[in-house]
Each structure stands twice: as C-alpha cells, then as structure tokens.
Amino acid sequence: MEWRDQGILLSVRRHGESAAIIEVLTPSRGRHAGVVRGGASRKLAPILQPGAQLDLAWRARLEDHIGTFAVEPMRSRASHVMTDRLALSGLNAVTALLLFCLPEREAHPPLYARTETLLDLMGERDAWPLAYLRWELALLEEMGFGLDLSACAALGGRANDLSYVSPRTGRAVSRAGAGEWADRLLPLPPCLLGHGTAPDHEIAQGFDLTGHFLHAWLAPELGSKPLPEARARFVERFKARAAL
C-alpha cells in the first residue's frame, strides 16, 4: 500500500534511537501518522517542525498499518513565527486543535485549504488573527457544529442589527430581538459579519464566542476531553495584546 501527497506537519515525537513518528494533515488522506526513519537525525529534525509543508510518500504492507513516510520539505513556516510569540502560539493552537478534533484518515479538503491559507498568513501581523478566528468558525462547521449568523433567530430576515448569538442554539439574534434576554446571550462582534476594521478587542470577543461552542458543543462529542491548553495560551496572549 502506498500513496503520495503533500501535507502540513501537525506533530512529531521521537521513536527509538533515530526515527520519529509524525502526524500530518493532507487534503486527500486527512490526518495521517507514519514513521520517518532518521526523523530525529541532524539532517531531518530541523525540517520536521510543526506547521511545515511537506511532500509525502507513505508506504505500508497493509492499509491499517502505521507505515513509513518519506518526506521532502516544500516550505518551512518556522521563520514566519519564531520571532513572534503570538504567531508561534497561534500556530501551536491550530495544530493542537486539529489533532484534538479530526479523526484519523478522514479527508476534510475545505478545512485543509483554510488551514494552509491561515498558516501562510501568520507572517503578516495584522492579517492573520481575524483569519484565525474565522478558521475556528470553519472548524466548528466542518465538525458539524456550525453557527447560523445569517438572520435573527427571533425576528427572522427582518433584522439588520445582529448583535448576539444564542449560547444554546448558535443562532444570531438582533438587538431588537434580544430585548430583556440580551444579558443571557453571547456578544457577536461586527468583524464576524464583515463589518468594520476588526480591531483586536472585537477579535478577542470572537474568541470567547467560538470558545463557548468548542467547549459546550464539540468537546462533549469527543468524550468531554478538555480543549488543548495551546488554544487557551494563545487566546490569553492575544487578549493581553488587545488590552494594550
């Protein structure tokens, strides 16, 4: 059994004296693991950094075996993020959430494309935080927990002042439709509706929104495992920047 594809390196751990086991996200094979012989060597270890784009050739005697990877670097993203602690923590949050959410060997081409685009943006300080927030919305959608921000759940299509999201249904609610229930709803930042310039405080508010549904909807479906600490660290670091 063998196949060839490209993919994003999600994790790497040492295996034996010189090999490594890597997990990658590919467009056609999904999250996939394999052994890289010599992966802990001086030649390959600098290449095998989370976020790296790799050309991959996988081979195994049987399809359900872990198999081995032959890898060639396509581009490293380490240079984009190593000098920016926020970008580095954002990259770690992306890879950790993908490992947390995605079942093995199940393809998610739209999410793969969004992830590749997001990681390529992380060298641009002002562009990627909003892209990351939208990526979390896309992750929820891909996992079957998409939010409905298209119309007011209370007043239907007549509303044009969407300002909240129901924490129970994930549907948007207008200011007029919220009424006395407003304090029980989650704020909907304008940047998620494509309005305004997406200042940091709005994006931080958006992380509270997506975080609620990651905790309340997604995690219970995955055995109520706690969300990766990497996401919490990233959000905390981003909020510290937003407060400046």
Quick description:
This protein is an alpha+beta fold and 244 residues long. It contains 7 helices and 8 strands; from the N terminus they run βββββααααββαβαα.
Description:
The chain contains 7 helices and 8 strands; from the N terminus they run E-E-E-E-E-H-H-H-H-E-E-H-E-H-H. A 5-stranded antiparallel beta sheet has the order 3-2-1-4-5. A 3-stranded antiparallel beta sheet has the order 7-6-8. The mean pLDDT is 94. Helix 3 runs antiparallel to helix 4 and helix 4 runs parallel beside helix 6 (200-221). A hairpin with a 3-residue loop joins strand 1 (2-15) and strand 2. It has helices at 78-81, 85-101, 109-121, 128-142, 175-178, 200-221, 229-242, and strands at 2-15, 19-26, 30-36, 53-59, 68-75, 162-165, 172-174, 186-187. The chain is α+β, with helices and mostly antiparallel strands.
Number of helices: 7
Approximate helicity band? 25-40%
Major beta sheet, specifics? Answer: 5 strands, antiparallel
Order of helices and strands: EEEEEHHHHEEHEHH
Structural class: alpha+beta
Give the low-pLDDT segments.
Answer: none
How much is the average pLDDT?
A: 94
State Rg: 20 Å
Beta-strand share of residues: 15-25%
> Number of DSSP strands?
8
- Strand order within the widest beta sheet: 3-2-1-4-5
Overall shape: elongated
State the separation between the terminal residues, measured CA to CA.
54 Å
Protein name: DNA repair protein RecO
Function: Involved in DNA repair and RecF pathway recombination.
Organism: Roseovarius aquimarinus
Keywords: DNA damage, DNA recombination, DNA repair
